[in-house]
Structures are given as C-alpha cells and as structure tokens.
Design brief:
Two copies of one chain form a homodimer. The first copy, chain A, has 450 residues and is of the alpha+beta class. The first copy, chain A, folds into two domains: 270 residues, 3-Layer(aba) Sandwich (Aminopeptidase), CATH 3.40.630; 126 residues, 2-Layer Sandwich (Alpha-Beta Plaits). The first copy, chain A, has 13 helices and 18 strands. In chain A, strands 1, 2, 3, 6, 7, 8, 15, 16 and 17 form a nine-stranded mixed sheet that branches. A four-stranded antiparallel sheet of chain A has the order 11-13-9-14. The interface between A and B is large, with 95 and 82 residues. β11 of chain A pairs antiparallel with β11 of chain B.
Chain lengths: 450, 450
C-alpha cells in the first residue's frame, strides 16, 4: 500500500483543541468540523456534529451497507491536553514538526494521529469498494476533560448504538518498538480536588505564628495521611475489591522484553523507581491502584517574601482504580478519609470532578484475536496482551452500557511524551497502523453479526 | 502640657511614601525632606538626607550639647505599605480623616504617627531648653521594603553611631488599650524556598503512576517531616539554643488581660488554636520558634483535570527564631533536614532568601525601666513587658552591630489595622505618647553616658 499523505494529520494538529480550557472552545469546535469532513471523505454517511449546550461536540458517521456482516464502532478523541509548560517544547506544540522519524505536536499520539489511522484505514477500504463490515464512528472532544457528553449520549441513545459487535479503539501504545500490542485492561480513575480551610482570612506569621492553623501545612498532612513514604494508600476500605492479576498474566508480564534501567534513566530521568515494596513493576503500573497529587495552589508564590499564614489551600488529585474497584464506593472512602485527615483547626473536603470505572477485556475474544493476527502479520512479531495504567473511560462505558468488547490496537510508543512537552508520534507506526487496521478489517469478511 | 497640633502629622500622611513601589520614589523623597525639616524644627543639627543610588534616603539629625549625659538614638521609618485594596477604605488612604477618637490614614500607626511622637517630644524639650540628653535621629524610608540602606549605612559608618547608650523605637503596640507596654523581645526569621525535583519532566499518571516519583507528594512529605500534626519542628539541632522564658516572664504573661475565645473567634476566625501541646499561648507566639508554609507552587492548578505527575514543586517557607537561635547555624540545620527528608526518587533543597536574628532586651536595663516608669505615670497603669512574635530587623541590627539596647515604647493598639485597609491611630495615645516620651527623657537627667 502507498504511504499515507500527512496533510490531514498536520491540519488537525494545528488546531489547539484543548477541551479543558474554556477559552479554547472555538478551536475544539473547529476541530470537530474537520473530523466530520474527514469522515465524509472516508465515505461515511449521516455525518453530523452531535451538540449539547455546555459540551464539546461529538462527531458521528456511519456506513451500513454490509448486510449480515458485523457492525463495528470506531472510537477516538480529537481533543488534546493543555501544552504547558510551553518553554520545554523544542518546537511549538501546535506547529507540527518532523524531526528524524518522529512528528512532534500536542495531540499527535493522544489521540489525533491514532484516530486518523482508523479513519484512513476505513477510507482506503471504502474507496476500494472492499469495506467488509458495517461501521459507526463516534469521536469525542472531551476525553481529556471528563467525557461527560459521550457518557450522556451513549446512555440517552441506545438505539443508535444498538446491534454493535465490537468497538475498535486506537488510543493505546505498543509495549515496545516493533512489538505489536493489544491492551486488555485499563485502570479506572477518581479525579477531584482536596480543599482545606483554616482561619477566616490569611494571617501574619509574625503575629499569629504558633497559634493559627496553616491551611497549606494541613494540606500537606492530608496528602501524606492518604499515602506515606511507603507508597501505600492508607484509606480504610480502599483496597477491599482489588483483584490481583491471574497467574497467567503475571507469567506473561514477566516475559515482556524490558530494560528497567533504560526506563528509569532514559525515559523517566528519575534517580529511583518508586512504588509499593515487593510488587513487580508491571503489576504496580497496571494492576495496583495509585494516588497522585497533580497540582497544589495556595498562599503567596510570587517573587520576594510574604509572611502569610494561608487560610485556604487546594490540591488536584486522582486515584487510579483496578478491577473490581467501584468508583462510587471508592469516592465514599476517599471523602471520609480526607475529612478525617484534617488536623486540628482546619477542615478538609474532597470535591469530586469525575470518575471512570476500571475495565478488562477477554483476550480470547474473536475480534481481539483477529486484530492480534493482523498486527503480528504487519509487524512481524507475536502480538502481546498487556494492560494499561491509564483510563480510557469509553472502554468501561461501552462495556457497561452496551456490553461491547473493545479491541485496543496500540500503535503509540512508550516514549511519545503523552500529556508532556514534546509529545510525538513515530511516523513508521502511523503507516503500519493503517496497514494493520486495514488487514484486520479485511480478515473479518467471514465474521457474521451477532 | 498643651495638646500637640496635628498639622505636621496631617502633612506627613498626605504624602504617599510607598517604598516598595518604584513609581512612588518621588513621594518617598518628598517625605524624607519633610522629616528633615521637622528635625530642623526640633532643634536638630547636621540634618541631612543620606543618599545612595537605588535606595531611599535615610534622614539623619543630631543634637550633642549635653556633655556627660547619655546619647540616645531615635529610630523610626517614614515609608508606608501600599494601600490596596483601595475599595475597602472608608476614607482615602492619603487624606487623613478623623472619625471619633481615631485618625485614619495609611502609615498613621506604622509608623508616621509614632515617629512624630519622638520628634515632638524632643522638640518640646529642646524648645524649653531642657533636653537633658544627647540625641541622634536615624529615620529610614525602606522599612516596608527590606531596609537594606539602613543595614548598609550602620555597617559602613560605625564612627557616626559610636558612643550611643540606647536606641528609642516607637514602632510597636500596647498589649491592650490603656495598658502601657514595652516590647523586650522579637523573634528572628529564616525565610526561603524548598525546591523538590523528581523525574526529568512531568509524566502521565496513567502511564507512570506506581513507578514515578511525584515532586508535589514528595514536597508534602518534606513539609510534614519538618513539622507534623503535633506542631513540633523535627529538625535535628534546631531547638538546641532555644532559651525558655524566665519564670518571671511566664508569670507576667499569665497575668495579661486576654480573652482567648474572642481572639480565636473574632480576630482569627479559626475553629481551634493550634500549637505545641502544653505550651501557653503567649509562649508559643513570642518564645517558641515556628515553621510556616507561606505558598506552594507545582503541577496543574487550572480549571478542569490534568493527570500530570509533577517533576518539580516549590514551597515558600519561614522559620521564626527565638533567643538564642543563631540564623547561620539554623540555616545549616534546615538545609540538612530538607535534603534528608526527600523521599526515594526525589531531591529536595532549601534555598535561603533572607534572615534576621532574634533579639531580646533585658527588662532590668535602666533605660527600659525609666521608660516603663514614665509610661506608668502617664497611662495610670503598671507598664507590662511583652515580646512580639514578629521581626523588627533594626532592633537586631543595632544590638549586633552597635551592642545597643532598644527601648521599644508601644503606643499603637492591636486593632490599628497595620498593613490593612483603614489603618488608624487612637489620637489620645498620640498625645499621651508625647507626654510619656518627654517624661522619660526628663527622667534621664541623672544618667551618665557609659
């Protein structure tokens, strides 16, 4: 197959579709319209922006002219993370730039480039008149900011999404270069803010230091009460539903090719790996829940010195969840633990922003197996089944609401710098991904709808 | 004595001598010139503005015609804090306005009004030909913005300030209305930043959570390692030089009239007072060192959600010091403790911004005792000796550089709104302050220089 022209990808990457920042709503919409145009170009019908006040548009398109054949849902997201810190980017985040075999831009790997793999594969088969399956695209613009619109839509319009056989998702990565990978498990998430209040107003540390509660120091105490230096989450009830990986999974993970020193030194640039003692790395990353502090805000942080005892402080935090932790129950545990951890003179409160349940897919599923064969074929190596430590809420949503298995074909690479400066995509994988998805779809000729 | 005319005070208060804002440098200079003129009017000689590029002027004046008598240094500052938030002022900050028995204006209590008490008292005695001591005035214009000029001058011109017996400072407050107060102790300070680094760059919590060091969570651990929920500073060696208050001080502090509930509820608005268990409030505020977090910066704190594992985090912190903690030695203890508290995978570093040593004055010092007698006489109540939890760097400077005891006569009140909107001065205290300082100076007739 001829290599794919990069024009559409460049055009998509130039739009700063940052869904979490309200001032970029116009760009998000512009990006949705470009996706709609690409879907039309791929032969899709009924293409439309699904709109709802206060939400970013979903983009829908379908092609249903393969009677008797399976119907697949193609999912991806066109929104991206904020690019800051800007000064750490080598080239500007929204000016896609090729250096070596990589294309650098915010969103190129998460998820615009991988989404385009799906669109281009379908486009090629449609253009050739050989698309062997029915197709529905549902592309969202809120994956990086909670995804409420997709959730609401899936729940409100079961008819439009009825009769599906599997979901195909390109939003994961290969375990290693040249190692085709299908992800069969994802962590869930509980994301929110911890707010701490002390006195009515900021106070002068010379006058009140020794008697006044300090909201920032109290916040530090709450954060270390939730998780200490041993990296063990100390919330009562939090681990009750955690299901350990199977012996088979542990054995397979142990055989994955992996250079832990290179991971620590080259990829992360950390002096030591951290985590719960005695638990192997992949189990910590994929099958254990975590607690992370994403940001802290409070007091005076300008140039110079101000001797304020802050009355208020806030931390953005998240918990990653693993099967079978249920977000609702976990949120209750968190609320109680945060409230209880506030030291004397302060009040602490957990304010929920969003949740996603953890999810898992049976690697013996026939669509998963067919995708694995196509990837093995194109990459010339046996496809491995891994999990991901991240959360792709749509996978849990489709599984819970539509009983739909998700086939997560990974074409990103571990050093793509997702959510970080200098996000990039290895361009040979973009081309091979299109070939692999095309072959996978072609291999479904003999599949029947359920 | 006839009441003092308020004309000079009003004129001083109309000049917005905001030292920390460069655009007010002209006003600061204008104010210095008015101080010089007032000093000349009080009979001072050799009056001059001491200038230095990039600094606000010091104002100097002297009268040295009492051979054999003591020589006193009078200190005050003519610069003021910025007045914002402006919309919270009832009358404009630089239009002095009398309401009831208070005069409202920025700087009226801190420190123009109290400084004028000293000038007017000397003026009266000089006019009457009865000034019994030698006098040097050294008035600064940078007290609210670092005070470097004064420090530099005192160190560079020891000869001009030689032969002094005591410093007289009016920049503190009465413990309560009608309770004459002399401050005999101030806490010192070590102010700086704690910087924590983890991985080379920010990482995605879905991908690396469970293996990557989190700089913000590490910072929380460092802050709680320095001081835990028991409010005890855990730095090795930190308390070695702490000298407890004398039994006499403790007993006197226990007799101070004080409504702890009103302090907690009305003044601070806190649910509980905090601090080291078993140590009385005034001892915690005046005689115990503290650790406060003034600000924390790190990670993502915008609207919405970003699942970043921050690579860097920073806290602005200070330690208040008490006699006989020596800032240099304390800084070393802090540096080591911060470095040692960094959890695995992170590095933590303390970066010093500035220090001031603690200072104390022996309440049995004859000048302090003479001032106390004069204040008792004028206010009709026994003068109390308190300390302050804040830092007045000039007191430590004069003590360390010139071995000079400071007599801190307090005429401000706790609700004068220093550094806040509606700063005010209780006018009866302005008049009584002038009488008290006059009587104090008259009582020194029998004192000899050292």
């Amino acid at each position: 197959m001829p290599p794919q022209d990069l024009g559409p990808l460049f055009a998509l990457l130039r739009i700063p579709s940052i869904s979490t920042l309200p001032e970029y709503a116009g760009s998000v919409r512009e990006c949705a319209e470009m996706i709609a145009s690409l879907l039309r170009g791929a032969g899709m019908e009924q293409v439309e922006l699904l709109e709802r006040p206060g939400r970013h548009p979903l983009v829908y398109g379908e092609w249903l002219h393969a009677p008797g054949a399976p119907t697949l849902l193609f999912y991806g997201h066109y929104d991206v993370q904020p690019p800051d810190p800007l000064d750490e980017w080598t080239s500007p985040p929204f000016e896609p730039t090729i250096r070596g075999e990589h294309l650098y831009a915010r969103g190129v790997a998460d998820d615009k480039g991988l989404l385009l793999i799906l669109i281009h594969a379908v486009e090629r088969l449609h253009a050739a008149g050989t698309l062997p399956v029915n197709v529905k695209f549902l592309i969202e613009g809120e994956e990086e900011s909670g995804g409420e619109h997709l959730t609401e839509y899936v729940r409100a319009h079961p008819a439009r999404l009825a009769g599906l056989d599997a979901a195909i998702i390109c939003d994961t990565e290969m375990f290693a270069p040249e190692l085709p990978t299908i992800c069969v498990g994802l962590r869930g998430i509980v994301y929110g803010e911890i707010h701490v209040e002390g006195a009515r107003q900021d106070l002068h540390s010379g006058v009140y230091g020794g008697a006044a509660p300090n909201a920032l120091h109290a916040l530090a105490q709450v954060l270390t009460a939730i998780k200490g230096g041993d990296e063990i989450i100390r919330i009562p009830g939090f681990h009750d539903a955690v299901k350990p990986p199977t012996a088979e999974e542990r054995e397979a993970w142990g055989r994955l090719p992996f250079d832990e020193e290179a991971y620590r030194e080259t990829e992360m640039g950390a002096s030591h790996l951290v985590g719960e003692a005695g638990i192997p790395l992949f189990e910590r990353l994929w099958a254990r829940p975590t607690f992370e502090v994403h940001g802290v805000h409070g007091g005076f942080t300008g140039t110079g010195a101000k001797t304020v005892i802050p009355a208020r402080a806030m931390a953005k935090v998240s918990f990653r969840l693993v099967p079978d932790q249920e977000p609702g129950a976990i949120v209750e545990c968190i609320r109680q633990a945060v409230t209880a951890a506030a030291p004397s003179g302060t009040r602490a409160e957990f304010r929920l922003q969003h949740t996603a349940p953890p999810s898992s897919v049976d690697s013996r599923n026939p669509y998963v197996q067919a995708a694995a064969r196509a990837m093995t074929d194109v990459f010339g190596a046996e496809t491995v089944f891994t999990r991901s430590g991240g959360s792709i809420p749509v996978v849990a949503l489709l599984n819970h609401e539509l009983q739909l298995p998700s086939v997560m074909m990974g074409f990103g690479l571990p050093d793509d710098n997702l959510h970080a400066p200098n996000e990039r995509l290895y361009l040979p994988n973009f081309q091979r991904g299109i070939v692999a998805v095309t072959k996978f779809l072609e291999s479904l000729k003999s599949f029947k709808n359920k």
